[in-house]
Design a protein that fits this description.
252 residues; mainly beta; binds zinc ion
């Protein structure tokens, strides 16, 4: 009797769809107590002592006075950004780091900006772990007083257990001829690196200043509350010097 040939996965039956597969690393955050040397969502960042912690200087922000732990003294002023993501190269082999870098960090402002829904003013940092460690770490990282920030934009400290998977575009990124085709549900929603953006709204890919379509770097979604927003998406252009990057978010 001939050996039974397994049924090919359904995606292989749809011409063109299999070609759209991209490897993604799902970060799988779990609430926990990540250390400064762990990859984390919302955890403490390995921050160089000689680099000031970033602040958001939006005009209408109020912040704590001389001591951020004292809730009675609130004054107008810039507020500290909050840690969002820290990725060490050893934990995310699928992420290509720039030459000499092995640590990626992301912060944003967790306060409400009246004009802009969603987290704002994100900043990305590519670093070298050994260099940061050799120069000493910033020990006093300012916090945001409770009640000041929008809880939806404050990720709960979580450890990460990255896994790789094949990712397929959301409906919004499918080429026209596939958009009306029933497809297996193979688009991965979650906080992830690489793969396809987990858009919940029509795709909105940024171009760099030189007109290159940027690549999807990472998506943050699902694992943290983002208010009415579906996700926050980061992109970069690896064809241009200085690794220009940009971000998008979408709201329901
Ligand atoms: Zn702000
Ligand atoms: Zn470019």
């Amino acid at each position: 009797m001939p050996a039974q040939i397994p049924e090919p996965p359904m995606k292989d039956l749809i011409p063109g769809h299999a070609d759209l597969a991209r490897e993604t690393t799902l970060l799988n955050p779990e609430p926990g107590d990540p250390g400064v040397r762990d990859s984390s969502l919302g955890g403490a960042l390995l921050w160089p002592a000689d680099e000031p912690w970033p602040y958001c200087a939006q005009e209408d922000h109020w912040t704590s006075g001389s001591d951020w732990r004292d809730p009675t003294e609130i004054v107008p002023g810039a507020v500290p950004m909050v840690p969002v993501l820290q990725l060490f190269a050893r934990d995310v082999p699928g992420l290509e780091f720039p030459e000499g870098k092995d640590l990626l960090q992301l912060v944003w402002c967790a306060l409400i900006h009246e004009q802009d829904p969603g987290p704002v003013m994100p900043r990305l940092y590519w670093r070298n772990e050994a260099e940061v460690t050799a120069g000493g770490l910033l020990t006093e990282i300012p916090g945001v007083s409770e009640g000041e920030y929008d809880e939806d934009h404050m990720p709960e400290p979580s450890t990460l257990s990255p896994t790789t998977a094949a990712d397929y575009p959301s409906r919004h990124d499918l080429p026209g001829q596939l958009r009306e085709t029933p497809l297996p549900d193979s688009h991965l929603i979650g906080t992830k690196v690489g793969g396809w953006p987990a858009w919940t709204q029509p795709a909105d890919w940024p171009d760099c200043d030189s007109g290159h379509r940027m690549e999807h770097l990472l998506t943050i979604t699902g694992d943290i509350q983002l208010g009415d927003c579906g996700g926050v998406y980061f992109f970069h252009c690896r064809r241009c010097p200085g690794l220009p990057w940009d971000w998008r978010f979408d709201c329901h």
